[in-house]
Amino acid sequence: MLNILDIIFNAGLIVYGVAILLRLVSSMTKKDGISQISWGVYLLATAIHLAYFISRAMISGRLPLSNQFEFAMSFSLGISLIYIVLILKFKANWIAPYATLAAFLMLCYAASLPKEIRELMPALRSQWFALHIGAAVISYSSFVLSGCAGVKYLLDLKKGEPEDGVHLRQIDFFSYRLVALGILMLTVVILSGAVWAEEAWSSFWSWDPKELWSLITWIIYAIYLHQRLRKNWQGKRMAIFSIVNVGVVLFTFIGVNVLLPGLHSYR
């Protein structure tokens, strides 16, 4: 059964790679037909990815969110699904190359990690498991996509798009809304984690490195929202803010586990 899972996972990774190559060819040739094919291939890759997530959940008897591999795999899937919503509901086609690459790179990171299915640690056997970690997936995915929007903003600004034009204002708006979604979900992560920690370790807060960096991430994005809503910061400076902050998100997810292991280090 595990061999079948590996086949599904590798197939998804390969199809994602094909979608990126087609997107690159489309950007170089400026042919809409290739872009449409790339979109179809990406939808196929996401469907395979989702099938892997569901299959792993069925085999393990739980949501596949318990260790670094499963979270990275789900993180990549979260990016893909939110990206698809942006395309279908809001016609935000401009984010396609960046979101595609972000999802693929996160899945590549997942591919470098051990994939065996393990029993849940006792501390993870809680009714808070799905809410806490699922909210983290949505939060991190939203922040990464906000960073992707920031990259697109700066590139289009460099090409001569006016800062007060409709196109850049749309990108700026989407980046802001993604940050708002991300910090909302991160708030759920922190609050549910505090309640869960009290049940598991008899303490709402223990200054564990993951807890500390989650709080730092929350504060940084709260500053983003404060500057936007109270100081009316928009445009280039907020695009840079979004891009730089992705590094904080990735450190909270990957760097803390590698460099600052603690109570939340589940590999």
What does this structure look like?
The protein is an all-alpha fold and 267 residues long. The protein is flat. The chain starts with a helix and ends in an 8-residue tail after the last helix.
Summarize the structure.
By secondary structure, the protein is mainly α. Helix content is 78%, strand content 0%.
Please specify the SSE layout and strand pairing.
Layout (H helix, E strand, L loop, with lengths): L1 H28 L2 H29 L7 H23 L5 H16 L17 H30 L7 H36 L7 H22 L5 H24 L8
Helix pairs in contact: 1-2, 1-4, 2-3, 3-4, 3-5, 5-6, 5-8, 6-7, 7-8
Averaging pLDDT over every residue, what do you get? 92
Number of strands: 0
General form: flat
Cα-based radius of gyration, to the nearest Å: 19 Å
- Helix percent band: over 70%
Major β-sheet, in short?
Answer: none
Please work out how many helical segments DSSP would assign.
8
Q: Determine the strand fraction and express it as a percent band.
A: under 5%
Spans where pLDDT lies below 50 across 5 or more residues: none
H/E series, N to C? Answer: HHHHHHHH
Structural class: mainly alpha
